[in-house]
Amino acid sequence: MADTAPMDPAVDLLERAVAQLGDVIAALTPDQAFLPTPCDDWQVRRLLDHIVGQILPAFLIAARGEMPDWSAPPVPLDDNWGEEYRIRAGWLLEVWRTADLEQPVPGMGGPAPLRGRTDQQIAEFAVHAWDLTRATGQGRTLDPDLAEAALAWSKPLLKPEFRGPGRAFGPEVPIAADAPIYDRMAAWFGRDPDWAADA
């Protein structure tokens, strides 16, 4: 009899984040490669290289309970971003579906269950789905649960010392508490929620 055990909620939410970003990437066209994005000085192609060639390999290592080298350069890619993403994301999800989520792994505050690493991955996929959607004017509706999860995970962790010139994140952008969830997520991660490619 086939295994019909329900998916762990953490992995289920990660699968949704992977699928959402995959849909955004699949809709990109070659002529959009050099469009600007909300990431300072990053065009669409550079952001895709980061997503597909850098963070997906690092996330695969992290899902195995190991410590990736976050400074490793992107794996060289061809221009078939959608297929490359589909393949590499598939490898990632295969590992998560069979992982021991309670396995203790190194964390910022000491050893913690492996499942906690899904939170970072969900946040990264959600933020970059917003980046690419804005950069290419797709106008699609993004899954609010993913942005909620990204904020819940990052609020205690994304401290001022991680923000500013030469750091991974810009300063938090002031925004109304009742603004749409993806606008609030973008602002928290240092993006201008009103950013537009033609602005």
Concise overview:
The protein is mainly alpha-helical. It has a domain of 135 residues: Up-down Bundle (Four Helix Bundle (Hemerythrin (Met), subunit A)). It has 6 helices and 2 strands.
Description:
- It is a single chain.
- The protein is mostly helical.
- The protein has a domain at 9-143: Four Helix Bundle (Hemerythrin (Met), subunit A) (Up-down Bundle), CATH 1.20.120.
- Helix content is 48%, strand content 2%.
- The chain has six helices and two strands, in the order H-H-H-E-E-H-H-H.
- It has helices at 9-26, 44-63, 81-98, 117-136, 144-154, 181-188; strands spanning 104-105, 112-113.
- The longest helix is centred in the first third of the chain and has 20 residues, at 44-63.
| Tally of DSSP β-strands | 2
Describe the strand arrangement of the main beta sheet, using strand numbers. Answer: 1-2
Largest sheet: 2 strands, antiparallel
- Computed over alpha carbons, the radius of gyration is 17 Å
Q: Provide the CATH topology of the domain at 9-143.
A: Four Helix Bundle (Hemerythrin (Met), subunit A)
What is the quaternary state of this protein? single chain
- What is the assigned CATH homologous superfamily of the domain at 9-143? dinb family like domain
Measured between the Cα atoms of the first and last residue, the distance is 57 Å
What is this structure's SSE topology?
Layout: H1 9-26, H2 44-63, H3 81-98, E1 104-105, E2 112-113, H4 117-136, H5 144-154, H6 181-188
Helix pairs in contact: 1-3, 1-4, 2-3, 2-4, 4-5, 5-6
Give short descriptive properties of this protein.
Four Helix Bundle (Hemerythrin (Met), subunit A), 199 residues, 2 strands, globular, mainly alpha, two-stranded antiparallel ribbon
